[in-house]
Amino acid sequence: MSGLRLVLAAALACGLISPGSGQTQLAQSQSQFNMQLQLDPAKRKPVPFELERDHILLQVQVEGRSAWAMLDNGAGRTIIDASFAKSAGLKVTAPVGQARTVTGVLESSIVPDAHIAIPGQANIEATLGAIDLSYTSKVMGRPISLILGKELFQNLAVAIVPSNKALEFWPSTADNLPPQVPRLSLPPNAGSIVLDNDIPQIRGAIGGKPVLLAVDLGDASTIAISQAAWHRLGLDNSATIIGESAAADGRPIRTKTTIVGAFRVGWESGNKAAVTLLPVLPEHGDGRLGIGFFRHYDFVVDLRARRIWLLGNADASRPLQVPKEAVALKSDGQIAADAYHAVELYKSGRRTEAEKLLAALRPMARSDVAANSLCWAEATAGIALDSALQLCRDAVKQSNRNPDYLDSLGMALLQSGKLDEALAAYNEAIDRGQGASSHMGRAVIHARMGDAALAQADLAAAKLHDAGIEARFAGYGLKLEMARKP
């Protein structure tokens, strides 16, 4: 059978994946970008992919050269690394505009004509956006030369099967095609989640309150929400893990992650999810639903039909302890969520399970963000304090003494009874700009040392920034109780 040829033509803005923090759009006048896509049903075979830091990576051919590509429906269009394009002999125009990210802009050029082959799936002739993907490559730990963007998702059904680490492209279920053309086969009882708008978005709920989340398979988060949504959902005084992400231009973004109880995405519901405070473009609604959520399912996304099918739990057969060779499959956000779960197990009396989970997480905490998250979970719970101290010291060293990580170190030292060292850590954190948490920790230390005036001064400074912080510290077992001076 000859290949099924779909010719797509779209006026699309060039966009870019931002590793760990989601979508971008192009702030320039739109140009006409043509894409010709050929599927050959007779020679189809699934394409293997890898999950690296919760991003879907696959190998493709660009002008006959092997290259790593990232899958991202949030990218406004398909993008090639400008340096790679030049090395492959492709024409790259002078900069024609700027790609707008959540933190700034990047220069964008055009590659007028490029050939991309996805082995066993498709051949593509397309006009591409061209920008500098060097920071994306740095984050992924390998050269990322291509980002397969929005055009593919707008015109095809994409079946992504994490349980087999394979994906396939199919004609959209909304297309009226001849009967001889092979189609995607869905289970007869498969339920779909309806997508809103062209973004696309899913309606759901967090803690019983409605949210509208953009589907972004290029975002490593489980659920990332805006500051406004964070406030509306009542998360301002929730226990959080402070971390750091980065935009596509390498600019750091401070993050907060909390674990919420009841949540719903379409018809799918659960009793626990990691929610991260991150910058969100206004058009995306309350936030983004990322691959941190979808990686737990075998699923099909069909934007033309405005549907996502969740076909099964991809994690059902996976053991609690992740093998060392698969350590990279857990994102920093997942490590944080699992650390909270371990604390819950510990507090409920299931200490053996908690210790087993924490032992599995420690080798995975390779980044300063992950080390700090795990340290904070252990320290605030008052468990595994030797581990917490080492993790926090590692995070402080790796981050060039990030004030939030110094604050976590202060907490671990305080819980360990090392008051002088804890005071030094909190002093440095405050000098470097850390606020409520370090002032509250220092207030506890001054109280234990019998200095009521300093304790009250730090308590006032802490409450000025966070009215609920004294109650939260009490939940950590750190009540402001004055010691008597000898």
Main beta sheet strand tally, sense and closure: 9 strands, mixed
What is the end-to-end distance?
92 Å
Identify low-pLDDT runs: 1-33, 316-329
Overall average residue pLDDT: 80
- CATH fourth-tier homologous superfamily of the domain at 4-170: Acid Proteases
Describe the structure.
- The chain has 486 residues and is α+β, with helices and mostly antiparallel strands.
- Among the domains are: 4-170, Acid Proteases (Cathepsin D, subunit A, domain 1), CATH 2.40.70; 193-313, Cathepsin D, subunit A, domain 1.
- 30% of the residues lie in helices and 31% in strands.
- The chain has 14 helices and 26 strands.
- A nine-stranded mixed sheet has the order 19-20-23-18-24-17-16-21-22. Strands 6-7-12-8-11-10 form a six-stranded mixed barrel. Strands 4-14-13-25-26-15 form a six-stranded antiparallel sheet.
- Helix 6 packs antiparallel against helix 7, helix 6 packs parallel to helix 8 (368-381) and helix 8 runs parallel beside helix 10 (403-415).
- The longest helix has 16 residues, at 332-347.
- It is elongated.
- The relative contact order is 0.10.
- Residues 1-33 and 316-329 have low confidence and may be disordered.
